[in-house]
Amino acid sequence: MFFQSTTFMIPKLFSERLAELAASAEVVGWYAFIVFAVGQLVVGYLLDRYSVPVVFSIVAALQAIFFAISPGLTGVSLLAIAIAFMLVVFGKIPINDVLIGRVARNEWRSRAYAFRYIITFSVSASSTPFIAWMYSGWGFDYLLIVLSVAAVLILAAVLTFPRTLTPSTA
């Protein structure tokens, strides 16, 4: 939900609140590309060195914090916080893949990935109308609050994970 919601809303949010910093769609695109690439690389590096639940807990906590700080911001302060929350949103991508890769048994792994993609496509299809509904009724600030609450719920779920995940057996 975070990935879909933020990637669909960020260009509109930037065009509304970063007019003085983003003179063109190309500049906004470059901002987004740099953030997306760096987030995945940093989290991938951390996943190679620390347990998945520890990295996931940090990412979920940071999401909740950055989304909670975002409402009402404009200009440079919005850009800084948006970079931060997009870093952790895109950082979640390798976490999901590593979770499946390490936990699913070899003979079930392809099915687990397929199920994940079905869920992802379903959420993607519903996130655009959800964003439009939230934006038309309450604006981006309330959407950011909803995302912050959802991040807190995910953090609560992640805190129930065992500290280390048992790798799947071949």
Labels describing this entry:
6 helices; 82% helix; Growth Hormone, Chain: A; 170 residues; single chain; mainly alpha; 0% strand
CATH fold description: Growth Hormone, Chain: A
The count of DSSP E runs of length 2 or more, i.e. the number of strands, is: 0
* Mean pLDDT figure: 82
Number of domains: 1
Number of contiguous helices: 6
Separation, N- and C-terminal Cα atoms: 32 Å
Biggest sheet, in brief? Answer: none
Low-confidence stretches: none
Explained architecture:
This protein has helices spanning 2-17, 25-49, 52-69, 75-103, 106-138, 140-158. The protein is mostly helical. The chain has one domain: Up-down Bundle (Growth Hormone, Chain: A), CATH 1.20.1250.20. α1 packs parallel to α5 (106-138) and α2 packs across α4 (75-103). The mean pLDDT is 82.
Topology readout:
Layout: H1 2-17, H2 25-49, H3 52-69, H4 75-103, H5 106-138, H6 140-158
Helix pairs in contact: 1-4, 1-5, 2-4, 3-4, 3-6, 5-6
Summarize the structure.
With 170 residues, the chain is mainly α.
